[in-house]
Design brief:
alpha/beta
Amino acid sequence: MRRKRIAVKTRIKLRRRTRYIKRPWHQRISKAQPENNLRMKEEMSELTHSASVVISVCNEDKTIGQVLQELEKLPISQIVVVLNGCTDQSFQVARRSSKAMVIHYPDRIGHDVGRAAGTKLTNTDIVLYMDGDIVISASELMPFLIAVDQGVDVALNDISAWVPPFYRQDSVTRCKSFLNRVLNRDDLQANSLTAVPHALSRRAIQMVGVTSLIVPPKAQALAIMKGLKVACVHRVDVVNHNRVRARNIGLDNDVTQLIMGDHIEALSAVMEMTGTRLQLPNESRSQLAKRRNLI
């Protein structure tokens, strides 16, 4: 009996000493992926529609070779590599791929303009979009192709697991969430066409227009407003693997200003179609408080 009491006291002491350490938000990531990923090996070569890939590249000679190697494992008929402002060996490396159609712009035109230019050269039912600085395995890219093959028009990368809580979010993330909210798509959270990889159906490209792809948030807004099927289909971590450049360092960097400007243009397009209230209720602060408090 005495031994039992000692054992119980010992367990109580251990429990008191034990502290629950909450893992940081970026480590609390579920490994669960959409169902499409479960059949990846079986469906790697079973697309019913034709597919192509557009890659925007700017001085990526260290990674573009590996990126192309993974893409060549996919059931695609075209790979369009758009080099913009490259001063390294990216052209020579890209030319080694037998599937790659290489387009070279000597001056920097930007990734979004590059994607739009590359899209004009495609003729497939599905177009997958990537950047040349992040190597993503073919098995991680296949879900985007499968989703569009099965009826999705805009297949987004779900980066929600790597987005911090609201109080820690940057202005770009909040702009993404706000745009989706005014479009009545809170389910998309901060997911956007600004993040790769993503894929579009030929119908989406035709309905929103190739030139709209130059402004990804605007293209996404138009797709939703026109009733196209927009969904987050797979989860690829491009947040922690995004290449650090001089233009994307700091809170008020050039890339941040560009993306926020794109969202302003997208909101302007929504206003033209729905009115200046952006489909938000026209309520006074007291009315809003009553509705929130169910008074």
